[in-house]
Amino acid sequence: MPPKGKMTDSIDLPASSKPAAPTVRTAYIALGSNLGDRIGWVEKACKEMDARGIKVKRTSCLWETEPMYILDQDRFVNGACEVETTLEPLELLDALQDIENSLGRKKIIDKGPRNIDLDILLYENLAFDHERLKIPHIGIPEREFVLRPLAELIPDKPLDHTRPWTLTRDLLDALPPSPTPITTMTPLSSHGHPPIQALNPSRKTHIMAILNMTPDSFSDGGMHGSSTLESTIQSFLDAGATMIDVGGQSTAPRTPQVSSSEEIGRVVPAIRMIREKFSSRDVLISVDTYRASVAEAAVAAGADIVNDVSGGSMDPDMLPTVARLGSTICLMHMRGTPANMSSLNEYPESEGGLIGGIARELVGRVAAAEAAGIRRWRIVLDPGLGFAKVGPQNVDVLRHLEELRTWPGLQGLPWLVGSSRKSFIGQVTGVPTPKERIWGTAATVAAAVQGGADVVRVHDVKEMAQVVAMADAIWRY
């Protein structure tokens, strides 16, 4: 025995006698629920997979679908995820069934109601035939609720090695149109607020009220002191706001940065006050920050959503922090920092021009969020009007918002548009004072609704709520 606390020399075993490292395989798992907190059950299942070493690498959006086979049951939430695992197929099946059981699943009727359902769809390129498990899953070709999320993950993968020319998207395109078009679902909080259904043509647009707890914001700096804060929030909610976006650091060009502790000191008391004073109101709170520490403090105080103007690029801890918190994040398109963004506004036609550049860079931010562990169904996008875009470029973004919504890699995700009082409106209308740009803002808000925005971020809540009500009546039915 060596003396206690001493290291002994290691003995190198011959390579042939060393245990082989387990092989990591890629599999695709279907996720489903139609009981209780449907999205919550799916998220718990994903956490359980991660905890058991079945690493969830990417997820699809979550889709709300009508029941199939047994029609007398509630609608389902369905999705799919890509996982890495060292388990063999039957071992993986055992692990997934154990997760179902640990989450309280009781299978009473085959294809009937269940709080959680986990099925192996694909395992590498393996064709597997066992009395307990068939891979590829035999139901894939006939089920839109499986094919649509799978096509988000692997649109160009053949599912049958004997027919390598038939890809996932080909099988999806071959399905007859659904009598009830399915829609994605983006949860906004853990308080029971309805999720955004970004593909539901009759959805209503959210009004996000801007609450800048800063002395130097471009149009309302220093307006929201503690003495008037409660009445301001009351007026927002009474006018029709469904979300309040609390910010403690101005992102206007040439505005000095404050410390993270000062930013937290600005936003956290406001968030706590909203939660305490307006607990009976159905209000969502987002925190406008690009700092992970501020996001974490804000969520602990009661914020539901993290609204990051940098898309998670200015603080390397932001995306992992949001993933750990399980919050929904809004990823905005921006280049550089607020200090230099205005000079980074060239979008060469050879690289797709303005819309192609925004789309490509947002696809990259979505990929970064997913790599950090944020589920795809927890992502909202923002084209970033006024950020690395000048003058007419912002108008062009509004013209082409629908194109961004349908861009490959961004499809099905909800969008937030923040045009309120911005300088491009002043340039078009000739109104130099931001507070007086109400009519120009109204036109941009109507354009955002027509283009498919799910959330509009505004200063003038009462006026813009009326604009949204009319725009929804015209375009959302």
UniProtKB/TrEMBL annotation:
PROSITE patterns membership: DHPS_1 (PS00792), DHPS_2 (PS00793), HPPK (PS00794), PTERIN_BINDING (PS50972)
Gene Ontology biological-process annotations: folic acid biosynthetic process; tetrahydrofolate biosynthetic process
Cofactor dependency: Mg(2+)
Domain of life: Eukaryota
Keywords of the record: ATP-binding, Folate biosynthesis, Kinase, Magnesium, Metal-binding, Multifunctional enzyme, Nucleotide-binding, Transferase
Ranges for domain Pterin-binding: 205-469
InterPro entries listed in its UniProt record: DHP_synth-like, DHP_synth_dom, Dihydropteroate_synth-like_sf, Hppk, Hppk_sf, Pterin-binding_dom
Listed pathway(s): Cofactor biosynthesis; tetrahydrofolate biosynthesis; 2-amino-4-hydroxy-6-hydroxymethyl-7,8-dihydropteridine diphosphate from 7,8-dihydroneopterin triphosphate: step 4/4; Cofactor biosynthesis; tetrahydrofolate biosynthesis; 7,8-dihydrofolate from 2-amino-4-hydroxy-6-hydroxymethyl-7,8-dihydropteridine diphosphate and 4-aminobenzoate: step 1/2; Cofactor biosynthesis; tetrahydrofolate biosynthesis; 2-amino-4-hydroxy-6-hydroxymethyl-7,8-dihydropteridine diphosphate from 7,8-dihydroneopterin triphosphate: step 3/4
Full protein name: Folic acid synthesis protein FOL1
Organism encoding this protein: Sordaria macrospora (strain ATCC MYA-333 / DSM 997 / K(L3346) / K-hell)
